[in-house]
Design a protein that fits this description.
eight-stranded mixed beta sheet, six-stranded antiparallel beta sheet, globular
Length: 380
């Protein structure tokens, strides 16, 4: 999933809807508390810190080139996955501490994106920005066995390339800069750049065998691939009006005033590529995740909505929506993608300046302590 448009979310708070405020009080999380932990990314690990602003300085780089949470989701079994650009994959298995799958060979020179699930197995794509990588024609780029689609093997805690650029029939001077999976077939946008111009072509492909059985080298018989149109690709990417959003998402965000503009990138747990829904123009941005037992949406300022029950727990407040605010971030810092596993909610944070990012990391919140706080609901 491409970088969220990090527009500051001002006034989303339910203050504009007094009736809802009375029935859906907002839990405010303090910057430092026993119910959550902050982490920041280094070049080879994640490190716990007290607050984001005391993490080690990170120079601002284009978002394709820097450390940051580039995508996240929860699978149908309730395990959380976070794709961390230039670092690896974080796995949450119902515990507070994530497992880091760090792979320098895969992540060191490529941008990681497009986390999806096939038969509840997570996959993601790799590419290099032709604009920010001036040595685009080097030997790594020319390797037809260079990985395009990578499988996350949770049991073995390993990362396995499944498809290569050679399998996709992509020229050595081109990159697959965006991929969409609809649960059946895949679409890919291929970008080629030379001294004269930039060109795009679009492909549709399907596997001819199980993806988890594929070898990491280019060979015939792995997929069927054909050219498709720009219109086909962008219609699959096109935002839809919020009135067309899933009913559970519309119900979750019903407290937001009608005159508040926003967009939501909506994921399904263990599912395919997200859909984008918009309410008004040039609004604030959120990410939503729909699972069987719960639904959650997070805006970039930390305003969060939840409905349902955490795994193994009772439904919250009789099925009513719950709203809470994550700790306030410093100026020019924003919350991004998230996942939920067991009692734990993990969300990316990053320092942002236009198309560049600086410091980045995650916040891990114990929702068991936050949402199932009997004292909080005693007044209801």
């Amino acid at each position: 999933m491409k970088k969220l448009l990090l527009l500051a979310c001002v006034g989303i708070a339910l203050a504009g809807c007094k009736k809802k405020v009375e029935s859906e009080p907002i839990i405010e999380l303090a910057p430092v508390s026993s119910d959550h932990k902050w982490y920041y990314f280094t070049n080879d690990n994640i490190v716990q810190i007290q607050l984001p602003q005391v993490s080690k300085l990170q120079s601002l780089k284009p978002w394709t080139e820097n450390l940051r949470v580039s995508d996240a989701n929860t699978n149908a079994a309730g395990n959380g996955f976070m794709l961390v650009n230039r670092l690896g994959v974080l796995m949450f298995e119902g515990l507070e501490e994530p497992v880091l799958l760090h792979d320098v060979q895969l992540f060191g020179a490529s941008t990681a994106d497009d986390l999806v699930f096939v038969k509840d197995i997570p996959y993601f794509t790799l590419y290099r920005s032709t604009f920010f990588n001036k040595n685009f024609g080097n030997s790594i780029q020319a390797d037809t066995n260079r990985p395009y689609l990578v499988r996350v093997a949770q049991e073995g805690r390993m990362l396995y390339p499944a498809l290569t650029y050679g399998d996709m029939g992509v020229a050595t001077d081109a990159e697959i800069v965006s991929s969409i999976f609809d649960g059946d077939s895949w679409l890919a946008a291929v970008k080629s750049t030379d001294e004269e111009r930039t060109r795009f072509e679009y492909k549709q492909w399907k596997p001819m065998m199980d993806l988890d059985a594929m070898q990491p080298t280019t060979r015939d018989g792995k997929i069927t691939v054909r050219h498709t149109s720009e219109e086909t690709f962008y219609s699959a990417h096109a935002p839809e009006d919020f009135s067309q959003a899933p009913s559970r998402l519309k119900s979750l965000l019903a407290a937001i005033p009608d005159n508040f503009a926003f967009s939501v990138s909506c994921y399904t747990a263990g599912g395919s590529s997200p859909r984008l829904y918009t309410h008004g123009d040039d609004g604030s941005n959120a990410t939503a995740l729909i699972a069987d037992g719960w639904i959650c949406a997070v805006f970039t300022d930390g305003t969060t909505y939840f409905n349902g029950a955490l795994k193994g727990r009772e439904i919250l407040v009789g099925g009513d929506n719950v709203a809470f605010r994550l700790p306030k971030l410093p100026k020019d810092y924003y919350y991004t993608h998230f996942c939920v596993s067991g009692d734990y909610f993990a969300v990316g944070w990053e320092e942002s300046s236009f198309y560049k990012t600086g410091r980045s990391g995650i916040l891990v919140v114990d929702l068991g302590k936050v949402l199932y706080n009997k004292e909080y609901y005693a007044a209801d």
